[in-house]
Amino acid sequence: MSLIRFTMLLLLFTLLLPATAPSAIAKGPWDDQLQQDIAQWMRTISAQDAGFASWRNATPTVRTLGTNQHQWLVTLTTQGKEVGYMVVAELPEKTDNKNTADAQKFVFVLLEYGSGEYLLFDETLAPPDEDAVPVYDGFSSFWKVNKEKVTHYIDAKTGERYPTTFQPDPEMIVRMDPRDLATAEKRLVQQRSFSSVEENPFDHIDWLPAALAEPPTRTAVSWKSLMDRQEPRSAVLTVSLFHDQVTSPFSIGSVHVWNEDVAYVGIWNEGLRFLPFSYASEVGRIVN
Q1: Domain boundary at 147, 175, 203, which?
Q2: Are 97 and 124 found together in one domain?
Q3: Is residue 127 domain-resident?
Q4: Which residue among 4, 103, 217, 222 is least packed, with the fewest CB closer than 10 Å?
Q5: Do 155 and 269 have their domain in common?
Q6: Nearest Cα to 137, choosing from 98, 186, 176?
Q7: In terms of pTM, does the model score above 0.70?
Q8: pLDDT tens-digit profile of 163-202?
Q9: Residues 113 and 191 in one domain
Q10: Are strands 246-258 and 236-241 parallel, antiparallel or unpaired?
C-alpha cells in the first residue's frame, strides 16, 4: 500500500470516529440519563399544573440544537398532536467543593418549557434555507442564515425576520448557574396561574409609563411578590433584545416554583412559555 493511500485511509478512519465529548454520545448511559431526566420533568410538571395535563401520556422526541451547543429541543406529542416542548442543556455542575483535582461533572438542566401546539423552532416556521442554524438563548432565540455574505436572523418562536442591520446580544442563558435552574432532582412544588388564555400586553397600556421611564431600572419585583399578586391585570415583562434595538413586552400568565427556591416565569408568546426567573430578571424588567 502506498504512503498516500495509507494516509487517506487513516484520515477517513479518523473522520468516521465518534466525538469523545459526552454530548456527542448517541446511546448508552449518557443517553439513558437524558431520557430519565426528561421523563421526570414531564411527571412533576404535569402533576402540579393542570395546564400540562396532556404531558402525562405524551411521547418525547429529542433533537439537537445548533452545533456543539450541548442543547436539545424536546418535542412532546400525544396521538400525533404536539402538546409542548422543553429546551434542555448540559452545563458544568457547580459545587462548594474546593478540590480542583476532582473531575468536572456535568448536569442536565431545564432552560425552558412550554405547553400547547406552538413550539419553539417549529419546523412549519423554519426558513427553507438548508444551512439555517438554530441558536437558542432564551428570548433571543433564532435561526441564523448566511446568504450572499449577509447574515439573517429569524425569530424562533414567531418566524419574524429581523432587519439585517440588527446584531444579537452576547449569549446569556448558557452562562447561568445550574443551581438557579431546574434539574431532575428538583420538583415543581408551587404554581400560580394569572390567566388561562393568551393575553396581549397592549390590551391595556398602563404599564407603558413605567416601561419607558428614563433611566431604565432593572426589576425589583421578586417571584415571591408575583406569587402574592392581587391586582386584576397581569404584570408585564419587558425585554430588550439585539442591543436594545428591539423591545418586547410579554404578559405574565403564570409562575412555577421548584424546590421552594427556584422559580420560572410563564409569559404569553404564541402560547405559554416558561423561562428561569433569574434569567428574566437579568435581561428584562417587570412592570405593573
Answers
A1: 175
A2: yes
A3: yes
A4: 103
A5: no
A6: 176
A7: yes
A8: 999 999 999 988 899 999 999 999 999 999 998 888 888 8
A9: no
A10: antiparallel
